[in-house]
Amino acid sequence: MNDGLIARRYAKALFKVATERHCAPEQYRLMHNLLEAYTLISSAMSNPFAGDDDKRRLLLSASQAGDDATFGDFVSLLSRNGRLADTDDIARAFCDIYRHSRGICRVEVVTAAPLAGAEEQRIKDIIAAHIPGKTMEYAARVNADIIGGFIVTIDNERLDASISNELKQLRLNLIK
Fold first, then answer.
1. Which residue from 103, 107, 99 is spatially nearest to 126, judged by alpha carbons?
2. Are 136 and 104 in contact (CB under 8 A)?
3. CB 29: neighbour CB atoms within 10 A?
4. What's the chain's Rg over C-alpha atoms?
5. 3-state secondary structure 78-146
6. 64 contacts 28 by C-beta, under 8 angstroms
7. Distance between CA atoms of residues 173 and 150, nearest Å
8. DSSP 161
9. pLDDT (tens digit, 9 = 90+) per residue, 3-61?
10. pTM of the model
11. FRET pair for 108, CA 20 to 30 Å: which of 10, 124, 149, 154?
């Protein structure tokens, strides 16, 4: 069976339970926390010598779940079914399902230098006009390697108006 399919099924099950218990936003926050911390705990999660109890405690700590019953029950279910190693894929799938159900778009803007407040607001306004009726989960990042311009990513859609991309296109055209 496809691992992506398994992760998606677990994520859908958690989303359904969280919706019924009126705690979907909280589960989204916990899954988001877990994804942010996962690079730090991935080696421990894939370590065959680490016990499931240790892995469960690590997941609860990394997500900052505290005594959240829904999340705790879910992690216990993953442990019983031998799916703790799939937690990052499940968390990613859950976040995708949650965003889709709430009309939330992930937006990332990459610039060569930090944007001034007015410039950033102008970009946000343009993006908001591009995704009418939806809200955005906005993140800005600085990457001097793009030289100038910007790169905007909205979910799976990407607009690359960077100088480095223009130079790359120019080089490819000259090679032709």
1. 107
2. yes
3. 17
4. 20
5. HHHCCCHHHHHHHHHHHHHHHHHHHCEEEEEEEECCCCCHHHHHHHHHHHHHHCCCCEEEEEEEECHHH
6. no
7. 21
8. E
9. 689 999 999 999 999 999 999 999 999 999 999 999 999 999 999 899 999 999 999 99
10. 0.83
11. 10
- Tell me the C-alpha distance between 56 and 94, whole Å: 18
The Cα 3–Cα 10 span in angstroms is 11
The rounded distance, in Å, linking the Cα atoms of 112 and 141 is 9
Fill in the amino acid letter for 36. Answer: E
Length of the chain: 176
Q: Which two tokens stand for residue 91?
A: 């968390």
CB 39 within 8 A of CB 74: no
As a whole number of angstroms, the distance between CA 59 and CA 86 comes to 12
Q: In which residue are the tokens 């799939």 written?
A: 86
Dist CA 91 CA 62 (whole Å): 12
Q: Find tokens 């690359």 and name the residue.
A: 160
CA 164 – CA 137 distance, rounded (Å): 26
Cα dihedral value 24, 30, 31, 37, nearest 10: 170
Question: What is the distance between the alpha carbons of residues 75 and 36, in angstroms, rounded to a whole number?
Answer: 17
